[in-house]
Amino acid sequence: MENTLGLEIIEVVEQAAIASAKWMGKGEKNTADQVAVEAMRERMNKIYMRGRIVIGEGERDDAPMLYIGEEVGICTQPDAKSFCNPDELVEIDIAVDPCEGTNLVAYGQPGSMAVLAISEKGGLFAAPDFYMKKLAAPPAAKGKVDINKSATENLKILSEALDRGIDELVIVVMKRDRHNDLIKEIRDAGARVQLISDGDVGAAISCGFAGTNIHALMGIGAAPEGVISAAAMRALGGHFQGQLIYDPAVVKTGLIGESKQANLDRLSSMGITDPDKVYDAHELASGKDVLFAGCGITSGNLMQGVRFFKGGARTHSLVISTQSNTARFVDTIHLHDQPKVVQLH
């Protein structure tokens, strides 16, 4: 899968990032997202693959592009049989977030990315559009920290696993009212808190790399992004756990369905019989081969944002693979509108 799709998957996130970056700082988060979706979909439909969106922009009626269940790839097009044999291709599932951190793009803030994860069919957890309690930590703490333990307990475990004082630990938390108690507990324990307004995928992945000065992600964020984070962290050997949150009273935003019972009913209809189950990275991204790709839209801890120059753009991307056990940073120059060479006769 990596050999067949690796480079093209990078180009998918690059094109989405470039399209979105053109709207950086303009205060138009919906437009920044829309153009990223369109660019991502256009590039994916040029790839010789049979892809299915399992995590996307929403259901068919809510999102005209990259909706959940949509088939993508050149061999899923109506005239596919005229130039390829779809039956010869491996079916893959795709989780996408064309503009992870739309507000970050709109207001010119750091940390937004175009991201996706792919695996063979059935290899990615089809997370509902709910929230998820998350815990990400470096490989040295894998299996030692636990989402069921208190933040104070996990900080002590992190301190021992990483061989550094609690006061040296930096914990990323989304700046939300629901996290006020969590933030206070982390600070009372002696650790430092880095608050982010959006975009917890980048924060989770940063835990998998030494030298980022991010030692854990704690708190509640969107469930679909949790699956994408889990795919990357599985390949990096880092720790990731997620637990679905279905109670609106916990989230405190009012953006999680009609009621707690309605959400429980929806989970049941999806075949999720244990709504309180804690998932690890291997359960959220269970495929034999899992590939993550991301491209910076605005600069963050891992990647630089898109930089435009006359006639082109420069992007910084990251592709992580369980197949080759690698994390590759890709620095690409995209040349646009180059003058044609005049042929002399």
Helix content: 25-40%
List the total number of helices.
10
Residue ranges: pLDDT <50 for 5 or more in a row?
Answer: none
Largest sheet entry: 8 strands, mixed
Summarize model confidence as the mean pLDDT. 91
> Which structural class is indicated by helix and strand composition?
alpha+beta
How would the global form be characterised? globular
Ends apart, CA distance between termini? 46 Å
Number of strands: 14
In terms of DSSP E residues, the strand content is: 25-35%
SSE ordering? HHEEEHEEHEHEHEHEHHEHEEEE
Summarize this structure as a short list of keywords or feature phrases.
single chain, 345 residues, alpha+beta, eight-stranded mixed β-sheet, six-stranded mixed β-sheet, 10 helices, 30% helix, globular
Explain what you see.
The chain has 345 residues and is of the alpha+beta class. The chain has helices at residues 2-21, 29-44, 102-106, 151-162, 180-189, 200-206, 223-236, 248-251, 260-269, 281-284; strands at 50-55, 71-72, 91-100, 113-120, 131-137, 170-174, 192-196, 216-222, 239-245, 278-280, 290-296, 307-309, 312-321, 326-335. Strands 1, 2, 3, 4, 11, 12, 13 and 14 form an 8-stranded mixed β-sheet that branches. A hairpin with a 4-residue loop joins strand 13 (312-321) and strand 14 (326-335). The protein is globular, with a radius of gyration of 20 Å. 48% of the residues are buried.
